[in-house]
Amino acid sequence: MKLLKTSKEIMKLLKTSKEIGEVISDCINKYTNISFAVAWIKDNEIYHELLKNKEKIKKSTFGIDFAGTDINVLNDFIYSDNVKIYKGKYTFHPKIYVFYNITRYTAIIGSANLTNGGMFNNDECAVLLTKENGVLLKDILKILEEYFDKAKIITSDMYETYKIQYENIKKHTQEINNSLKNVEEKIGEAPLINLSWDEVCKGITDDEDDFKNKIKILSEIKEIIRKLRQEQINTVDTKSDDFRKIIGFKSGYEHFGGLKNYYRNHTNTKVILEHLLKVEIDMNEEINIEKIIEHVREYLQVIKERSIGIATATRFLAMKYPNLFLCVNNEANQEDNSYKGNKEAIKDIFGIEFANSEPDKTIEKYITLLKMIYNTEYFNHKLTKVEKQNENFVAISRYKVVLLDTYFQYWKNN
To answer: pTM of whole model > 0.90?
Structure first.
């Protein structure tokens, strides 16, 4: 949204972290001089671009309060003449980026640090200023110079001291998150579960052959459902191979809570499919969590009234929208009986216990589970430019939630 525009200057509101990251990435490569003051820097794709253009950096400063900056950043700029650490009495908290050459400059001033959250994932906002004849540039460079003059050169002793603090805080992060769980629940927010993108991807792809097989199965089922939706899902032949693949009754398709012991009740099947058809989520629009929850609650309520279990109901959801839903189950899906389902892992990781004796509570428990999943770093991760070139990351992003079932298996075994 442009707030002001003339032939010589532009002021623009950057409303998302993605917009901010894209502008900064472009400016790093376009301008000959870079200067910044940020609270924290973390290892990410844009930071790597900055390192490639290290010679352009002039009088820049970053903070280390709360060990928010990655330890390798200090090592990258140890004894640097142009990048220093600001450590004062109070928290160092500015987020200013300026790029300039002889005739032009671009400045971004707002809420975003040079972190994955600030450049890709968080809700961020910033003002972009571009001008050909920089009166304001002098004021911006002046404040950056003042920060720089008060900052300290990164020495080896400083690096070693910070490393101890950084590792201690990182070690206790999970304990801190757990201690905040009750507070977050009281204010009505889904508790923070420490599922990082890197951690979950590692677990999902731990067995490369198994991973590729599952992606093949999900892709095939996705295409089957796409065709069925054109003809109405509730017209499906429940004895066909395609339907057996959807429910995981066909050999080799038992993953993700496959209904190995599925009862062939045609009436119940019709009920499930008729109401599944009503769960329509536009994946071309920005995901609306409240709308998704509303759809799911209505669908599960109807299913519960027919005494259909959570495993059956959520298997269909997970196959229709594998990027949004997970099948909750405790059946043995594999011939060797090694996998007993995911209820145990869900209880241990999310603190939610699904019991067959509590059908009235099952719907709200599943809704809570979804909210917690949707609140993880893993779910909210946006693929970087580099990750978009990796077929594994692209596949995981496409089937993000249903693949948590694979991560749960890895988690239990490690």
So the answer is: no
